[in-house]
Amino acid sequence: VLGVLANINEASAENLFNLDRYLGFFRENGAELIVVAGDSGQSREEIEAVLRKVAAAGLPVVAIPGNREAKADFVDAVAAVRKDAPHLIDGNRVRWIDWDDVDLVTLPGYHDPRYMHAGGAGCQYFKQDVEALRKLAADTNDPAVLVAHGQPLGEAPTALDVIAPDGKHVGDANLNPLLTAATFPFGIFPNIKEAGAKAVADAGGKTVIAEGTPSETLYLHPGAADSIEWKMNDGSSIVGTAALLTIEGGKATHRIYRATRLTEAERAEAAKLVPARATAQTE
Question: Are 202 and 155 in contact (CB under 8 A)?
Answer without folding.
Answer: no
